[in-house]
Write a structure and sequence with these properties.
Keywords: FAD, Flavoprotein, NAD, Nucleotide-binding. It comes from Subtercola boreus. This is Pyridine nucleotide-disulfide oxidoreductase. With about 500 residues, the chain is of the alpha/beta class. The chain contains 15 helices and 21 strands. It has four domains: about 180 residues, FAD/NAD(P)-binding domain; about 45 residues, no CATH class; about 110 residues, FAD/NAD(P)-binding domain (3-Layer(bba) Sandwich), CATH 3.50.50.60; about 110 residues, Enolase-like, domain 1 (2-Layer Sandwich), CATH 3.30.390. Strands 1, 2, 3, 4, 5, 6 and 16 form a seven-stranded mixed sheet that branches. A hairpin with a 4-residue loop joins β20 and β21. The longest helix has 20 residues. Bound molecules: flavin-adenine dinucleotide and nicotinamide-adenine-dinucleotide.
């Protein structure tokens, strides 16, 4: 399932390429965690000619493939297609029944390959990477022990680098009774084989908003408890539009309300939440979607002078920043993906993986480094050019800085907004199209700092904005990027027109 399924040989003259893993095996590079990110680091290192081991405790493919991106999108897609068809006369009349929940769950199961990772393990082998199954723990500088499912322990040593790509897990807030109430996390929400009649969701972030959309569509009576507005890291109108849509789907969205205690009646009984507005909520399942913690609790970090349970702070080449920790001397410890807390997104982690894999190869082989901003060996885009699509209905697609974030960062900005329903492409897409776009412009440099699109089918519009932000394309040049008629991308032209054209600067 990895995006870059090319094969490679470990041909470096200084490399050893073991056939099997045995006590004391040495590799050039060891990657801990075969999620989407770890797979890509290992692939780049192997393609660069380094002998590479990939250690995985659960399923090759990680969270994204089995319990996050892919199953969540599978749960959401059928409802989105159905609603889209209902907005187009001719198609609408052809809909003769309700959503088929069992078929949706079956398609989700197929999407996650029934929780089997053989095809991904096959890809790893084909890429010339040695897969080591088991739980890795540091035992010292450049050394690890790996404990497999049978309890056998083997030792691995890295010649050049170890990369921690162990991802993150759901955070459970410290609310009395919560941990003992068998709450759902994103894992249960994305893998459930049935739809609870009543589902409460704690947290109005991305997981909360997406799962509220999915479960409300699939028949649950959903109640969302959100301390702040929904999707509070986005432009405010995004969360407001998603909230309105959820209410239309029959969900109850309680803003500014938190649970103070949680309890469950016996095993598998109803869950009761007491809320800080004085009310009580009784549901069949409670999904906790209140953020993430790093998978660094049982990693032996103490043996190399780092703290267990901490996020691993890295520089732009993805090296764990050493501070005054002598154990990290020699540029050998890297962290990529969720575990470094830079941008908890698969695509951004894979971007880091490409930079990290390549810089490890360059450092190992003494090749020139390209570590200035936007160089080949750095993850510059993590700072101010991160794209993200939230697959609610309407979708929220954004890149770069929001107005609030840009002002906080010290930019002088001018922002323009536009109602996407006014472009011709929107009226073709759906009757009664509802959507909004916003562009944040750096007034000084006349470049786009951030763009947000909210509406049906805006996800694939996003890359145009990402190119504009990353390329720092001047506004006067963007006028020459002509959007095709009649597509949703004409919103670009409208945003520019709303901003105004300065002919003197051309
Ligand atoms: C519900 C949900 C939906 C999401 N949807 C999207 C989306 O649509 N798009 C998007 O871009 N992002 C999405 N994300 C975020 C995305 O899932 C993560 O950013 C991504 O999975 C991070 O990849 P990773 O490789 O860093 O970590 P992971 O995918 O978590 O992989 C880490 C791997 O390391 C293994 N591991 C951990 N510790 C050890 C150890 N000690 N020894 C050996 N192996 C170990 C784990 O078993 C795991 O396989 C979603 C997240 C959630 C929760
Ligand atoms: N489509 C996507 O790209 C996608 C989808 C799902 C998840 N993800 C990624 O996964 C990560 C985790 O998502 P998430 O939704 O768990 O985290 P999040 O940080 O996006 O949202 C968590 C929300 O929970 C709230 N919260 C925290 N404690 C609370 C409490 N005690 N009671 C009520 N609310 C509380 C926070 O204020 C916040 O709004 C995100 O960083 C996201 O980028 C991405």
């Amino acid at each position: 399932m990895s995006s870059s399924a090319s094969s490679s040989e470990s041909t470096s003259s200084e490399s050893t390429s073991p056939e099997t893993t045995s006590p004391g095996t040495t590799f050039d590079v060891i990657v801990i965690g075969a999620g989407a990110v770890g797979e890509n680091v290992a692939d780049r290192a192997a393609q660069g000619g380094l002998s590479t081991a990939l250690v995985e405790a659960e399923l090759v493919g990680g969270e994204c493939s089995y319990w996050a991106c892919m199953p969540s999108k599978a749960l959401l897609r059928s409802g989105a297609v159905l609603r889209a068809a209902k907005k187009v006369p001719g198609a609408r009349e052809a809909i003769t029944g309700e959503i088929d929940v069992q078929a949706v769950l079956a398609r989700r199961n197929k999407t996650v390959n029934d929780y089997q990772d053989d095809s991904q393990a096959e890809w790893v082998a084909g890429a010339g990477i040695t897969l080591v199954r088991g739980h890795a723990r540091f035992t010292g500088v450049k050394t690890l022990s790996v404990t497999d499912a049978q309890g056998n322990v083997s030792q691995l040593t890295a010649r050049h680098a170890i990369v921690v790509s162990t991802g993150s897990a759901a955070l459970l807030p410290d609310i009395p009774g919560l941990a003992d109430s068998a709450p759902w996390t994103s894992r249960e929400a994305t893998s459930s084989q049935s739809i609870p009649a009543r589902l409460a969701i704690m947290g109005g972030g991305v997981v909360g908003a997406e799962m509220a959309t999915a479960y409300a569509t699939l028949g649950s009576k959903v109640t969302v408890l959100s301390r702040s507005g929904l999707l509070s890291n986005q432009e405010p109108f995004a969360g407001e539009m998603v909230r309105d849509a959820l209410v239309e789907l029959g969900a109850d969205v309680k803003i500014g309300v938190s649970a103070t205690t949680v309890s469950r009646d016996g095993s598998g009984g109803a869950v009761t939440l007491t809320l800080d507005d004085g009310s009580e909520l009784v549901v069949d399942e409670l999904l906790v979607a209140t953020g993430r913690v790093p998978n660094t609790g049982d990693l032996g970090l103490e043996t190399i002078g780092l703290e267990a349970h901490s996020w691993l702070e890295v520089d732009d080449t993805l090296l764990v920043t050493p501070g005054d920790n002598g154990a990290l001397d020699g540029d050998w410890l890297y962290a990529t993906g969720d575990v470094n807390h830079r941008a908890l997104l698969t695509h951004q982690g894979k971007y880091q993986a490409r930079a990290a894999g390549d810089v490890i190869v360059a450092r190992a082989l003494g090749k020139p480094l390209s570590t200035g901003p936007w160089g080949a060996h750095v993850a510059t885009a993590d700072h101010e050019a991160v794209p993200q699509v939230t697959f609610t209905d309407p979708e929220v697609a954004s890149v770069g800085l929001t107005e609030a974030a840009a002002k906080k960062a010290g930019y002088t900005v001018k922002c323009v907004e536009y109602d996407i329903s006014w472009v011709a492409g929107a009226s073709v897409t759906a009757d009664g199209y509802s959507g909004r776009a916003k562009m944040v412009v750096d007034e000084k440099r006349q470049v786009v700092l951030g763009v947000t699109f909210v509406g049906q089918d805006v996800a694939d519009l996003l890359h145009s904005a990402t190119v504009a932000v990353v390329g720092e394309v001047p506004l006067n040049r963007l006028w020459h990027a002509v959007p095709s008629y009649p597509t949703l991308s004409e919103v670009w032209l409208r945003l520019l027109e709303t901003y105004g054209r300065d002919a003197s600067s051309h």
